[in-house]
Design a protein that fits this description.
disordered N terminus; about 25% helix; about 170 residues
Length: about 170
């Protein structure tokens, strides 16, 4: 039995060659970034960092391709900073993987982490991002275009709620 050849493809991940067919495999990493703030009544409000991309103007989470030599966590931290200007702290023990196909010949894997920050001010990456917004966590799901993103947000919120319960 002949094994498919693996080769590196510039900036798009790995490609497997099956005869004349070519499938490209991409891997990206990002984070669901939370910021907690106490409102005027002393109630804790949780916010989620969301971006809107120039080409599609849908809300999503910051993410991007893994560069050679980077770990998944390093990629997530770099991409969040590049796209939003926000430095983050990755929260331990949350790693959620999403698989989808953005084009017929492309299979993509995205690894999301949960992250936290106390920074408020953002700087959108002009070449890729139209807007960076802090959205109240209880309103964020309605703005996400993809069911995969809504599921990741739901799991991240569950994780953070459990983490807060355990620290009391």
């Amino acid at each position: 039995m002949r094994r498919p050849a693996l080769r590196c493809a510039a900036k798009v991940g790995l490609s497997r060659m099956f005869g004349d067919d070519k499938m490209t495999y991409e891997k990206s990493c990002g984070a669901v970034v939370f910021r907690d703030e106490t409102d005027a009544e002393g109630k804790l409000q949780r916010y989620v960092l969301m971006i809107k991309h120039t080409e599609r103007s849908r809300h999503s989470f910051p993410k991007g391709h893994v560069e050679p030599g980077e770990s998944e966590v390093m990629t997530a931290q770099r991409e969040v900073f590049e796209e939003t200007g926000i430095h983050i702290r990755i929260v331990d023990k949350f790693r959620q993987t999403v698989h989808y196909s953005p084009k017929p010949s492309v299979k993509k894997t995205v690894v999301y982490f949960v992250a936290a920050t106390d920074k408020v001010d953002t700087v959108p990456q002009e070449s890729e991002v139209v807007a960076v917004e802090w959205i109240r966590a209880d309103e964020a799901s309605k703005l996400l275009a993809h069911s995969n993103d809504r599921k990741v947000l739901s799991l991240a919120l569950e994780y953070m709620d459990g983490k807060n319960q355990n620290s009391k």
